[in-house]
Amino acid sequence: MSYADFTLSGLTRQFNLTIDETTDLYSSIPEAALDPLFVTRLEDNVKLALSISTEKARSEFIIAPILVEVRLMAGRRIGLFSGVDFTIDPAQGLAGVCDFIITRSPEQLFIKAPVLMLVEAKNEDMKRGYAQCIAEMIAAQTFNAREGTESDRIQGAVTTGNMWKFLEIEETTVRIDSRDYYIERPGRIVGILLHLAGCPPGP
Known about the structure:
Blueprint: H1 8-15, E1 18-20, H2 36-52, H3 55-73, E2 79-85, E3 97-103, E4 114-120, H4 126-147, E5 154-159, E6 163-170, E7 173-176, E8 181-182, H5 186-196
Parallel strand pairs: 1-7, 4-5
Antiparallel strand pairs: 2-3, 3-4, 5-6, 6-7, 6-8
Helix pairs in contact: 2-3, 3-5
């Protein structure tokens, strides 16, 4: 079993989770002021990715460029990992390759202090993406506790590239943001990602 094999019902039973879908988590986070050149490139990328309409295109042309821009805007103070193995507890099913991980540490040779787990919604199946993301967030909780970098919350995001949904886990309570965010307002998405990474955009 791996992260991608979990279902929401299976997760809640196995890890005794409470899921809250009613909380507006991040609407108060300010929009990031983006470089106009980045916005222009992203607009072209979005058109290309949506016309190709494959997971790989959305990952390469929308998701990855946004995360790279977040890292640059954070002054490279955070780490960004893509397609890395993050096997923490195979017996519990907390094993497999993660789409993207943002860490508190700029270290890129190995994962240290994961803070945000991001999952591409396979075949645009958001519900399945939630389950995978929550499983990865639980693994990040376990990892940080083992490494002595325990934090109150682990953040998550599930995206089709076009639509973004944010999550957080605190102990055994999982909150799935009641709001959806769309790529037409990339500053909102980047602002939230910077906030979750601990590097909020400046005034």
